[in-house]
Predict the 3D structure of the following.
Amino acid sequence: MSFNSFGHIFRITTWGESHGPALGVVIDGCPPGIPLEAAEIQTALDKRKPGTSKFVTQRKEPDMVKILSGVFEDDRIKKEFGGPVTTGAPISLEIENVDQRSKDYTDIRDKYRPGHADYTYDAKYGLRDYRGGGRSSARETAARVAAGVVAEKALAQVLDSTVTIRACMVQMGADKIDRAAFDWSEIENNPFWCPDSAAAKRWESQLDAARKAGSSMGAVIEVVASGVPAGLGAPVYGKLDAELASAMMSINAAKGVEIGAGFEAAALSGENNADEIRMQNGKPHFLSNKAGGILGGISSGQDIVLRLAIKPTSSILTPRKTITRDGQETDIQTKGRHDPCVGIRGVPVANAMMALVLADHALLHRGQCG
Amino acid sequence: MSFNSFGHIFRITTWGESHGPALGVVIDGCPPGIPLEAAEIQTALDKRKPGTSKFVTQRKEPDMVKILSGVFEDDRIKKEFGGPVTTGAPISLEIENVDQRSKDYTDIRDKYRPGHADYTYDAKYGLRDYRGGGRSSARETAARVAAGVVAEKALAQVLDSTVTIRACMVQMGADKIDRAAFDWSEIENNPFWCPDSAAAKRWESQLDAARKAGSSMGAVIEVVASGVPAGLGAPVYGKLDAELASAMMSINAAKGVEIGAGFEAAALSGENNADEIRMQNGKPHFLSNKAGGILGGISSGQDIVLRLAIKPTSSILTPRKTITRDGQETDIQTKGRHDPCVGIRGVPVANAMMALVLADHALLHRGQCG
Amino acid sequence: MSFNSFGHIFRITTWGESHGPALGVVIDGCPPGIPLEAAEIQTALDKRKPGTSKFVTQRKEPDMVKILSGVFEDDRIKKEFGGPVTTGAPISLEIENVDQRSKDYTDIRDKYRPGHADYTYDAKYGLRDYRGGGRSSARETAARVAAGVVAEKALAQVLDSTVTIRACMVQMGADKIDRAAFDWSEIENNPFWCPDSAAAKRWESQLDAARKAGSSMGAVIEVVASGVPAGLGAPVYGKLDAELASAMMSINAAKGVEIGAGFEAAALSGENNADEIRMQNGKPHFLSNKAGGILGGISSGQDIVLRLAIKPTSSILTPRKTITRDGQETDIQTKGRHDPCVGIRGVPVANAMMALVLADHALLHRGQCG
Amino acid sequence: MSFNSFGHIFRITTWGESHGPALGVVIDGCPPGIPLEAAEIQTALDKRKPGTSKFVTQRKEPDMVKILSGVFEDDRIKKEFGGPVTTGAPISLEIENVDQRSKDYTDIRDKYRPGHADYTYDAKYGLRDYRGGGRSSARETAARVAAGVVAEKALAQVLDSTVTIRACMVQMGADKIDRAAFDWSEIENNPFWCPDSAAAKRWESQLDAARKAGSSMGAVIEVVASGVPAGLGAPVYGKLDAELASAMMSINAAKGVEIGAGFEAAALSGENNADEIRMQNGKPHFLSNKAGGILGGISSGQDIVLRLAIKPTSSILTPRKTITRDGQETDIQTKGRHDPCVGIRGVPVANAMMALVLADHALLHRGQCG
């Protein structure tokens, strides 16, 4: 049992604080023989990293990843695999923190920021590393994104087929995308991972206004995994739905998760909710996907579809009522560099968590372990 | 790792199929010295059991629970505790199945019921016990409710204070309760655990209509835990939100879960979302509860509030398109006794899962384990 | 985490006290499609059960096992498999206690028996079920033997080959068998599972003398698994040696475990200890087996060989110095029915634990999980 | 589940290969508020590190440890604790490898060294990092020793009392120490951690002879923990004996472990084996310690005493028969720098493993978790 670990067989353990010397992740249970180079992980980290647009924190972190263990190359391996491969030993990935701005932390040392974990960490531990949020900072998610890359590669090897995992933002504030305009190819064209170009335009001005006002906005992220074979997951407590819900709710600022029709399923009739089945090309073909690709906790072969609600960033410029560590009433106004919509950087993280859950269950499935 | 187990320290393992001879649960990690008698568990089971109104399955199960291990009484214990107490050894609870109606299962043996786990179980296991849904049946949840009683008692002992856990239905189909009319004392006055008497009346006729039409309805369940001290939970992957999400999504037919403001948090501004803090009676007092009692994965001392979406029962009388085990297209019409709204019986189950998560984390907190 | 559970993937959870109504085990993670009937488990239980000779406890327990879940049969399955098969759902096995002799427990209620767990259970839990030793009784091992049968069947299915697991007693008191006389076919010919008929004869009179004197004797058990393929186990903390050591030391009265040359390896030179390798029939062939079939924590394809030291039964008729629960000095003399050499009944238990470890690691290996 | 992790609540995960850039450990579950500085860990590492005498490998590793996360200091903490303290977040420790001698590995790349994990790693993974033994190298144990320091500090804090853990070598080759001459203060006076100065002298010439002959010797290590309160551990599968056996057998080259009288218990009568109890200073006082401080899997308050057999180093200069990766028969002669008796450096590792097990169970005990 470790609350800084995730996964059963393909299992990650992350460590590091926002303003410590480094952060990292140890990946255990990754199968051997998977080609892996730091450059591939770097590409994914670059997408998540801070400072890429005015809509994310201006902290400048290069997020350069080092692979410290678990991969090996010699002439024979180079010839067979084209480069270094995983060996089955734990893979240690490390990212240095370089832009921990030296500053005066007196304010957050003594006052609890509303919406943040300051008060609860003190309640649990009696003390806390408050610099930049310490362990509760979203900086921890860099480690998840790095591990997610390895998970996607392991998933492909284990299933011997390609699973396509994609994530996007489908709502910012109260403004939802137009489903008719949904286009995956749009998500790299705007700073929001928005699949609807018109919505992206609207969000740009809305978030700019919020940012300038020192406010922040929430978001809804959607993650879709295509190509997942039927049979992954487990009944009862290991339901794929439960695993994914746990994975997504472990992301900073997440407040809700739903699979398939989700909360809307409550309003459907039994007739409209249960996806009918036909045959197509010799395989089961569902006529709808209200279930979001999971039935009884086990994948059905349809797209796995989930959505995740992200609350607005709690760090805002408006002064808010709070108390001090010693129980005095006071006000606090957050300073420092922050994401006006933390949901944006949550998109690659949600993508990574889907990869981690699927890699884990693909391994379990292969061993018929579960 | 066991996918039929739930919890880290206070850990349950359930077993049993819908139409097997019995079902049960082994509870491990329950502290010693907790008074426990079968009658207390029975009271909770009686609330969940089938056949209590026309709105739940007509299967007649007395659901008589037996305690087979883990409790002990002698004269000294009787004198000190008033009756048998837990010993710290695993507690085995067993419930016999008595009303497994002997019938012809040919239909569901060969055809996959849309919305059910039939196809996915076959995809995972290659075969399945299809009688009454086998292991995927909601009958498994009787074991959860039984274990939940023990969890609530353990929770009270560990915290040395009372946590009140209550659950209710706040939406049936598309019809939500009136929050202004919310009254916990109403929930035992109607067959829906509805805290709004007017809504309960409306639901009665709606569900009756659905039932007569052979259809079914979904629901939203709300669970509230009051009196939970600050400091329970864990950062990162063991966030209390993540644990609760996993617990709730493991309930049959659950498709979504949200904490506090949940999906509505996405539409709030940072100012409106972060709960301000004042002092009251020498303790922190939050001016709102958008967070649902959890900040950074750790309880804040506020009420823990979550909601859970339950899809409409997949067993309906209208014929639906499906395929056979051998890949032939066909139709299926579910027969047998079913819940027109499985959300109703989900209420005590959601209540039990909250108790299980809290007991587990209260124990971890006591040992500063996590 | 559950201290009444064993195994990672093929995982058992046992419950029950010596004098409670029943005891049992839930087996989770057993693959589907394994033919399983109660009669097969019964055969193994009959070998371990009390009352079979004057050298084991005279308690009369029929140890009739019931399978309550996790197996299923219909016409199609009967035709394909010849009888009921596992479904992948948890298998619940239950054995009733019938000969809990109603008696006066005042003596062991108030006094701590030297060598028993009485004092330490009270130190840990504050109270204990002392009837027959409660949870600390070797009666729990009936559940292990039952689960071991399922493990052996799972192992054969997963490896698609036969692993032969055998256990015997190689020493009773200070008297060791003659290795030159070792003959597996002898073990069912004497009440000691002794592979050396001459030693068995000597032991008979030695143990009879000890029994009549109200004393007891220790033993060394040897377990050998043949046909285990190379590659099972894991490096570092999941070493097959470590898993087996944990399994064996969890058996009541075990005080030592060694693999291969074991403690004698300390006295060997590097030249004599490392097993040289040649080829034979196209496969690696080791010229000796000092390693006991495990190198670096992973099976080498040789026989896995371990030995296990069992202390003499602590229940003896000679009065011993002890203290009461309240800290008064006193004497105690154990009454009741006991095994003069608990090592005898430990033999099938050690056999079962080997099967459990191997089934678990065979599943992990198949999924390349670990 | 992670086979590179150890512990339930106080849980370590190690990573790194012998000739990779670094190795390290992530410690999760360490309570907050424990003063911790790198210098303390360094002191322990210096005792274990290579190159300190001619009796250990001549590899020159400074083994400088860095703390990368999980500790924090500000003015308030400095004032209260005197320096940086643990925060409850995972503690990442890292040690660079600096003396990975660049050399020709062709020999061990293609041939399996008898007694080493070469063949079994290939059997399990299909490939391996053979440089210096890769993951199977005893270099991994540096991470254990580092984590052991943190465990000892956590143990003292959790129990609010001092547990003294000491380890020594009691046998080298076939030569045992004289128990009458046992003196803990001797162990730092010789390169063997030997508590008998006369034996140490004998061992010096014996090992020198073995070293010059290119041979190697085995050893028996004894570990004693004094001051452990009664009540730590768990019945059944989590027996403290089983946990310790697993911990010790996970050490490289370990082939046997015994608690208290261990294998000699088999030869004792029931009268001589069960430790009688009297009162002393108001506390239970055992008249002997055959049990090694553990009864029924739970600590009794006596010294916990265990012994561990270490096989002779498999790397020797005498050519040995072996096979190549491709199944050709050949000879191999190990070159490179090696420990003539790997048991020597095993002493601090065994000490660390004892600390890890006790810290883990002390935390479990505090929470009454188990």
Notes: Residues 167 and 351 of chain D are 6 Å apart (CA to CA). Chain D touches chain A through 48 residues (CB under 8 Å). The first strand of chain D starts at residue 5 and ends at 6.
